[in-house]
Amino acid sequence: MKRKIKEVIRRVFYEGDHQYYQDQQRKKLDLFPEIEIFLQEKNIKTTLRWPDRPASSLDWIFDFGEYRSGDYMTSFETVLSISKIVEAYNMCHAFEVSNLTPQAFTKTINGSDQMHGFTYPQVELNFHIKKVMKAYGYVRLDYQDMFEKVPRLRFPHKGRNILGKYIDVDNILFADAMGIGVPDEEDGSLDKLHSFFEQMGFKKKKE
After folding, report:
1. CA distance 180 to 176
2. Domain range holding 152?
C-alpha cells in the first residue's frame, strides 16, 4: 500500500478523525487547468458525475464518440476518478462494440482497461493526465491498489457493515462505505430519494 494512502487511513479510520473526512468531502475539486486545456484542444466531450453534492471522490467521463460502418458500431470512453480524501486517482478506459455474432446473446460487447487505453486518443489522454497529476503530487491507484483490503476497521454505526470483515481502499477513500461522511441531509441524498419516489407517484406525508 502506498505511503500516502496508509497515512490517511491511519488518521481517519484508526485514530478516528472523522471531521477531517467530512471537511475533505466538502472541498471543491476541479480538473487542473492543464487537463482542461488538453480536453478543449482535442475536442473531447466531458461530463462530471454528481457535481452538486459533497462526496468522497468525483468522476469525470471523457467521451470519444462513436464510429459506425453498416451494422458495426464501436465507442470509447475514459473515466477519471479523483479522491477528495487523499491525493490519489484512478483511471479506467472502456469500450463497447456491436456483437454481430449470429448467436449473440447481447447486442454489444464491452470491456475496460486501467493501463493505457484501446485507441491512440485514449493513450494520449492517459499519458497527459498521468503527467499532470504527478506534477501536482497525486498518486495513481491501479486495480490492485483500489481493491487492496484494509483490515480491522470498526464501523461506527451498528448494523451498517454489509461489506464483510475487510474493506477495499476504493470503498473508503473513493466512497463512504463506512458511513462517516457528511449527513445525508447535507449531501442531498434524501432530497434525490424523495424526488425519485414523487416521480413514481408516491407523495410525501404531511407533518
Report:
1. 7
2. 3-182
